[in-house]
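retry 2 of 3: previous attempt timed out while embedding manganese (II) ion. Reduced batch size to 1 and resubmitted. Inputs unchanged:
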Amino acid sequence: MPSHRAAYELLAEQLSAEGIDVEAVKANLKRQEIETPSWGYANSGTRFKAFAWPGAARTTQEKLDDAAMVHKMTGIAPGVAVHIPWDKPADNDYDAVCQYAEAQGVHIGAVNPNVFQDDEYKLGSLGNPDPAIQERALDHILECCTIMKKLKSNALSLWFGDGTNFAGQDTLRGRKRRFERGLAMVYEQLPPDGRMLIEYKFFEPTFYSTDIPDWGTAYAWALKLGDRAQVLVDLGHHAHGVNIEQIVAFLLDEGRLGGFHFNNRKYADDDLIVGSVNPFELFLIYNELVGAAQSQDAVASATAQNVAYMIDQCHNIEGKLAPMILSVINCQEAYAKALLVPRQRLAALQEAGEVLEAHRLLTETFRTDVRPLLAQVREELDVPADPIAAYRASGYEEKIREERGLATTSGGFQ
Ligand code: PSV
Ligand code: MN
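retry 2 succeeded.
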């Protein structure tokens, strides 16, 4: 008998006694999907230093191999987000990329245009004062709409490094209008089944103003653009103290939550492992998602069931695949706990104004040790009960270290 089984049976018994449908919880957990980023498997760093990691992926094929291994260990990470041009094939053969991914058992997820890396973008891309550079950025994003079709991707994930460093550097209203024009032109060219995810970030790389600084701006533009434009919430892109779960709740209720970039930060956009600093926040975010998915509200429920869950992290000093597996597991744990929240009891306490008891019910649920439940789910998914231990024992890390050596290239930030 597997070592988790006794603990799982005890937990299942307790949960059933509390009225939780354990089979339904497991079914939801088996359907969970988290997309991993191709750039997370390559070398990366900060603006001070990119440390080379032995065995880090050097090519898109290697990134896909690594993502496939993460999926093999977890069973819930079948999608891989790509960044263009970091993942642009030299021969432009995107069909081959797509086929290679499928042969490894994964598929391409969100396509991320890159309009922040070239010298031309020093003063911005769509917000640049120079119309020729606006056009250049627009052309690249429109090319990404075409690439989406070739890669069978239905998500265009937009993040811009645009903004200004000094008061008076540019006209803030002018930049807003340039963006609105550019985004509208992109929206028109989305593939028929494609959606646009608009990511916001309150600072960096610019420090005085950012052209899409917050969820409100992204939301306002999504409303102007149309139903297929939604907001992408990157957990690292908020000021300290911001209540992210409240933003999530609002966007779910308005049908405009499109996706996440999961990571964690202590200070700024640290790209730390999701759930490593604040697992409670991650649980509260999932709590909103599950609450909306299970609600009677058609818009919130449909929106919650169509969220693109993506990891956006760079692993600089802790390895590549093992931390990616841990990230996926942390999301799985948070989701499992959120699925265990006794929603009817919670609603009754809330309606009765039982502040402390409502709070205790939620926090007690958060404290549930769901590891035996997840081990059981993994057994039923036919993946290892302990994905990180299985990865370490697989010999994959040794193999890639030997085959790939110490690459000098980075994920994109050369
Ligand atoms: C920017 O900080 C960001 O979060 C965007 O999503 C980019 O595409 C990604 O990081 C690149 O690392
Ligand atoms: Mn991001």
